[in-house]
């Protein structure tokens, strides 16, 4: 009898575990001096898509409802049009594959592999765990002076991503903090809320030491939104605790206080005395806008920004960004994107591509917020706050960043998490903690997919 026990346990393994493995792979160090492109996590994400497809074929069920298919498939038309307008077939195919991976295929696979809110929470906690690891590495880099170079000192916390991807750790830590905040503000067990609160407070320090202004702004906006959505009274109480913790954590580091204050102050110095990084950013924004004015509907084609940049950029643009430290030597990193996702899409894909992509994101946000309002006093509030928070963070961060680097695959997982809540999890009856097995998925798949879903 004891020999038969492991069998049902194996059968109950969550299908979302391969997605957790994708998140876990980002804990591995990136080779110093690497290009910061696709890595092992991207390769595994492709296998996750394949695994999901095989699983659907075996179960012989309709994969997505009409609503989900439209929302997730909306960017495909704009991407295909922009790929045809690329400067070369290789650039078009490569750009199309990357965009489909990040914004269509992996999000759809994540949506289909999450069975219920327990799977959702497992994936959210994996984000928190990865953020804790990367944050710990980042704090160690700051304390020991082994981080990326910042103002002549190798103190910038970059985690295992290295100096070639200074935004990687900041992105991971921000995602983990947003997930922890959503789990802490939910109506789950006291133990889970206490652990999540401790994790959220602990992640404030590595986020500060990342010196990433865009991540700071996006996290502040997102956590404020989560607090308000969770209730105004709780927002005031939790806000006071977070403020006090921030003062203690940041104020306790005498060496970094001056640099942090200067970095924070530079956020407001965008017109009077901007630093070179801000000047470069605004110059590239203007270049992307110039590309759009040249081809307003279809843009200059996928991966066309580097080729058309110099023709539209002013002389204020520097030759590149200086990177050094964290195990890598000095290197001049070329500026190949405008560091604004909306302007990148507008310049390369035109108005058609931007409306398709942004329309998909906006539809997810509206559905997620609608689901949050429907379950405001239900046990699923933590899932709603995590999903809405991750979406708000990503859409805010896209004002200061775009896709690129090993951490980009997390954007795909984030969109998949948000899509599950917006299109599946939020459709559950108020007060229901988990979907009723296959039938719960059948509701999400739509009436046309009810019989197929029951064949799971």
Architecture overview:
The chain has helices spanning 6-11, 17-25, 40-59, 66-84, 89-113, 117-144, 166-185, 190-202, 204-209, 213-230, 232-251, 254-266, 276-294, 305-312, 341-374, 381-397, 408-423, 438-445, 450-453; strands spanning 148-150, 153-156, 321-325, 328-333. It is mainly α. The strands form two sheets. Strands 1-2 form a two-stranded antiparallel ribbon. Strands 3-4 form a two-stranded antiparallel sheet. Helix 2 runs parallel beside helix 6, helix 7 packs parallel to helix 10 (213-230) and helix 13 packs across helix 14 (305-312).
Looking across the biggest beta sheet, what order are the strands in? 1-2
Poorly predicted ranges:
1-11, 429-456
Count the beta strands. 4
User: How far apart are the termini?
Assistant: 27 Å
Class based on secondary structure composition and strand pairing: mainly alpha
Our estimate of the beta-strand percent is under 5%
Count of alpha and pi helical runs: 19
Overall radius of gyration: 22 Å
Sketch the topology as an H/E string, one letter per element: HHHHHHEEHHHHHHHHEEHHHHH
Helix percentage range: 55-70%
Mean pLDDT metric: 82
Shape, principal axes of CA atoms: globular
How would you sum up the major sheet?
2 strands, antiparallel
């Amino acid at each position: 009898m004891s020999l038969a026990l492991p069998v049902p346990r194996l059968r109950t393994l969550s299908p979302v575990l391969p997605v957790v493995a994708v998140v876990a792979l980002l804990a591995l160090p990136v080779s110093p001096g690497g290009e910061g492109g696709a890595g092992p996590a991207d390769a595994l994400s492709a296998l996750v898509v394949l695994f999901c497809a095989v699983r659907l074929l075996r179960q012989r069920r309709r994969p997505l409802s009409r609503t989900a298919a439209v929302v997730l498939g909306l960017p495909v038309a704009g991407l295909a049009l922009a790929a045809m307008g690329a400067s070369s077939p290789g650039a078009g195919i490569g750009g199309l594959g990357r965009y489909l991976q990040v914004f269509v295929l992996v999000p759809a696979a994540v949506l289909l592999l999450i069975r219920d809110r327990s799977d959702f929470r497992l994936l959210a906690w994996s984000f928190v765990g990865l953020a804790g690891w990367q944050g710990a590495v980042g704090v160690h880099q700051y304390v020991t002076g082994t981080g990326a170079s910042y103002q002549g000192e190798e103190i910038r916390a970059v985690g295992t991503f290295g100096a070639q991807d200074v935004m990687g750790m900041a992105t991971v830590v921000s995602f983990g903090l947003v997930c922890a905040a959503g789990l802490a503000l939910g109506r789950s067990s006291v133990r889970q809320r206490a652990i999540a609160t401790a994790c959220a407070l602990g992640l404030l320090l590595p986020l500060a030491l990342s010196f990433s202004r865009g991540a700071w702004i996006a996290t502040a906006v997102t956590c404020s939104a989560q607090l308000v959505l969770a209730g105004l009274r709780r927002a005031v109480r939790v806000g006071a605790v977070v403020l006090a913790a921030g003062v203690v954590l940041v104020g306790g580091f005498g060496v970094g206080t001056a640099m942090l204050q200067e970095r924070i102050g530079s956020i407001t110095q965008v017109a009077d005395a901007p630093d070179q990084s801000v000047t470069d950013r605004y110059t590239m924004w203007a270049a992307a806008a110039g590309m759009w004015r040249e081809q307003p509907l279809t843009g200059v084609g996928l991966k066309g920004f580097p080729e058309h940049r110099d023709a539209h950029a002013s002389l204020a643009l520097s030759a590149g960004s200086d990177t050094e430290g964290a195990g890598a030597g000095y290197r001049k990193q070329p500026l190949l994107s405008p560091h604004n996702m909306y302007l990148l899409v507008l310049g390369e894909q035109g108005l058609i591509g931007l409306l398709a992509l942004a329309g998909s994101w906006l539809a997810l946000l509206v559905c997620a917020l609608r689901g949050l309002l429907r379950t405001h006093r239900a046990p699923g509030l933590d899932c709603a706050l995590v999903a809405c928070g991750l979406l708000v963070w990503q859409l805010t961060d896209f004002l200061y960043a775009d896709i690129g680097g090993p951490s980009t695959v997390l954007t795909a997982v984030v969109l998949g998490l948000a899509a599950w809540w917006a299109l599946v999890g939020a459709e559950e009856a108020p007060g229901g903690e988990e979907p009723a097995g296959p039938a719960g998925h059948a509701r999400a798949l739509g009436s046309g997919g009810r019989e197929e879903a029951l064949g799971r």
